[in-house]
Amino acid sequence: MVAAAPVAPEVPAPTREHTVTMSHITKFLHTRYRVDDLERTVKFYREVLGLREVSRAVSPRGSKLAFIELPGTDAQLELTEFKDSGPVKVQPDLTHLAFAVDDLEAFAKHAAALG
Description:
This protein has 3 helices and 4 strands; from the N terminus they run H-E-H-E-E-E-H. Strand 2 and strand 3 (64-69) form a beta hairpin. A 4-stranded mixed sheet has the order 1-4-3-2, with helices on one face. The chain starts with 15 loop residues before the first helix and ends with a helix. It has 115 residues and is an alpha+beta fold.
């Protein structure tokens, strides 16, 4: 027997009130990924992808945060480590980030050389 895929709840069509409310969003700021090893992950984004870390912080609950600049946008990638939540378990194909590169073959060689 094949299990049925979960069905998203039905969302009502937006009303004029919803449309006006949504216009209050003026900018996308960041997206967050929780990771098991913040230092190793930041090193990957910096050394393999060539991205720049712009800041660090600790949240009120104790999460370690690192913010990565994303080229061509004002948005940032927030990487978060919170050991008290246990290991990060991500199912395959759940999410991804996509970046443009000048030369895909050269980038692939660069990434392969760094393991």
